[in-house]
Amino acid sequence: MVDVVVDGQSEVDRLLNRIAALEERNRMLTSENKDLRRRLGKRDEMVRQVAAVVQTEQPPKLMYRREPRKHRPRVHPVFLLGDWHIGEKAERDATGGFGEYNWGVTQKSHGVILNSFLKWVYNYRSIYLIEDCTVMCLGDWISGDIHDELRVTNEFPVPVQIAHAGQLLGQTIRTLSSEFKKVKVVEVGGGNHDRVTRRPQHKQRCTNSYSYLVYAIANEMNQGNSRVEIDYSDDPKRIVKVGNTRFLVEHGDAVRAWGAYPAYGWERMLGREALRRMDESAQRFDYWVIGHWHTPTFYMDMIIINGALTPTTEYIHLKGRRTRPAQTAFLVSEKHGPFDFTFFRV
Ligand SMILES: [Mn+2]
To answer: Does the residue 316 lie in any domain?
Structure first.
């Protein structure tokens, strides 16, 4: 055999070195493999020992029975209505297909939501005693003339908007009164879109407002109905007691958003209201109910926000946001307070 020398090392030496290195590596891997197999064996043995101690249980007997409850605790549904913006027109073609709004859509959306609310109540009646309903009316019933663009694009003028809004609200109250022994209607005035003046006004906020007329029409329609109890006031901020829970109720436009985020504004207003009302038990509240923000929200376990009937309008579309028509409801337990916040969507 002819040995070849490259870089001072013969080819034979190079191969012998390589074989020695591979033999060493083989020894290491064999020993590691032995060690791992021993550890695996130990673990398997432990599992066997543990399993030997554990006794297999029989599947339990099915205890569930469909049985009508004898005692049904009393709960009070609260239905939030508002931000209907009747008369506003949004075009599907101008909102990327997201939104379409007109009087026909308003009635349809509202009908779907009212139906869903009543079905929700029916379901709960199998486990709860539900005899009354509180409707919190939160304002912004009409589109109004508060901006130039609304003035020229509204589907019909303000007097017609008021007539439609009043009648739709009146019909809603009437329908609800066929399902409950008592319908308490809390009428909050002073929504920004309902205002008569172009600039927001603070004095006579609820009376110098189209919401005043909307409520007058709705109330007139239900005048002879003894199951309907109207709770109207000129105060835009109301304290309403349902069960044993106290709610501060208002439209919600007095809140200033912070850096385009309303949440900080809500917290600030909530803090101010809580602070100034802490001395007087008649002014205190447990939850704050508002509309205006068009986004059904239950925030910080203290703030309850209603949705709107309007969809993604041209303004919302341009801002890259989305609004799905919705109204909100929840139940109030005498013992545990509000629960089951539900957003009824179209
Ligand atoms: Mn509003």
So the answer is: yes
Q: Residue 115 is part of a domain; what is its CATH number? A: 3.60.21.10
Cα 190 to ligand 1 centre (Å): 9
* Residues with CB in 5 Å of ion ligand 1: 140, 192, 253, 292
Percent over 90 (pLDDT), the chain = 85
State which amino acid sits at residue 234. D
Q: What's the half-sphere exposure (Cβ side, CA atoms, 13 Å) at 254?
A: 17
Mean pLDDT of 155-160: 96
Domain tally for the chain? 1
pLDDT tens digit sequence for 89-133: 999 999 999 999 999 999 999 999 999 999 999 999 999 999 999
CA of 187 to the centre of ligand 1 (A): 15
Q: How many A from CA of 74 to the centre of ligand 1?
A: 33
Distance 308 CA to ligand 1 centre (A): 9
Q: What does the pLDDT look like over 38-93, one tens digit per residue?
A: 999 999 998 999 989 998 888 778 777 766 667 889 999 999 999 999 999 999 99
Spacing, Cα 147 to ligand 1 middle (Å):
13
Instruction: Find the 293 Cα to ligand 1 centroid distance in Å.
Output: 7
Dist. CA 139 → ligand 1 center (Å):
7
Tell me the pTM: 0.81
Tell me which residue range forms the domain holding 183.
75-345
Note the Cα 155 to chain centre separation in Å.
29
Q: Quick one: which of 167, 170, 143 has its CA closest to 154?
A: 143
In a domain, 214, yes or no: yes
3 in any annotated domain:
no
Tell me, yes or no, whether 28 lies in a domain: no
CA of 253 to the centre of ligand 1 (A): 6
Are 291 and 140 in contact by the 8 Å Cβ rule? The answer is yes
Give the list of residues 6+ apart from residue 88 with CB closer than 8 angstroms, or none: 101, 143, 150, 153, 154, 155, 310, 313
| Average confidence (pLDDT) over 299-309 | 96
